[in-house]
Design goal:
Elements: E1 7-9, E2 25-27, E3 36-37, E4 41-52, E5 55-66, E6 76-81, E7 83-90, E8 96-102, E9 109-115, E10 118-125, E11 131-135, E12 141-143, E13 148-154, E14 156-157, E15 160-164, E16 169-170, E17 178-181, E18 189-203, E19 212-227
Parallel strand pairs: 1-8, 2-14, 4-19, 12-19
Antiparallel strand pairs: 3-10, 4-5, 5-8, 6-7, 6-9, 7-8, 9-10, 11-13, 13-17, 15-16, 15-18, 18-19
């Protein structure tokens, strides 16, 4: 059994040109391709891009099962992008493979899983890049009990987004650069937090039902002071 994690250093390009190396553009879901395989593996892979002190961290996590539902050990799991191919290593949990990348993964992402005669290959996932909040920003003061416009900019438009505050979660948010929090869900708070999760996902065509390859990018801004208007 393989063990441990692979940590690879990668510099992230600025928002002006996009972390994927391209100019900011419209929806990137059209880049997705389910690849091919022999319908013998259930593969569920996630690329998580999180903000950390000093930059970003990309976590690759792939779980692999066989037709009988048993974890598949000793598989060759590889992710490629605008970086050297990364071979994910099997963790203590059988059938679970992982690797970490310092920085935000750039370029179109490709996943391949091979184990003896079982395989899933050339799964393509469009990179949605990172995003940044424009308003409100940390330490801002905004009015309570009125509609609050949350604004952000992103490298690429994601097919799905979710906005979460300390009071509510808003699903199926369009990654269009702004969302209006209703007045009834904008109560006074001295420590409001806004989290925006953007997602792109492709169903793996050559895998068993339920196979997918997904990218999730999460950023947050806090604290934001939400105060009632003065009489």
């Amino acid at each position: 059994m393989k063990s441990g994690r692979v940590i690879v250093a990668l510099a992230c390009a600025g928002l002006a040109i996009g972390c994927n190396g391209d100019d900011p553009t419209a929806p990137n879901g059209s880049v997705n391709n389910g690849g091919f395989g022999n319908q013998m593996l259930l593969v569920q892979g996630t690329v998580n891009v999180d903000e950390v002190t000093g930059g970003f961290l990309t976590e690759f996590r792939v779980n692999v099962w066989g037709r009988d539902g048993e974890p598949v050990t000793g598989a060759d799991v590889t992710v490629e992008g605008n970086f050297a191919p990364i071979s994910l290593q099997e963790s203590v949990s059988e059938g679970s493979y992982s690797a970490d990348l310092t920085g935000a993964a750039s370029g179109t992402l490709r996943l391949t899983v091979d184990k003896d005669s079982m395989y899933v290959r050339d799964v393509v996932l469009g990179n949605i890049g990172i995003h940044a909040f424009v308003a409100p920003e940390a330490q801002d003061t905004v009015l309570a009990n009125v509609p609050l416009i949350v604004r952000w900019v992103s490298d690429r438009e994601a097919p799905f987004a979710t906005l979460t505050t300390r009071d509510e979660t808003f699903y199926n948010v369009a990654d269009a650069g702004e969302y209006v929090v209703p007045d009834s869900l904008n109560p006074p708070r001295s420590n409001q937090r806004f989290e925006l999760l953007r997602v792109n996902e492709v169903q793996i065509a050559g895998g068993l039902r339920g196979s997918y390859f997904r990218m999730e990018v999460l950023r947050k801004v806090e604290p934001v002071v939400v105060q009632e208007a003065q009489p």
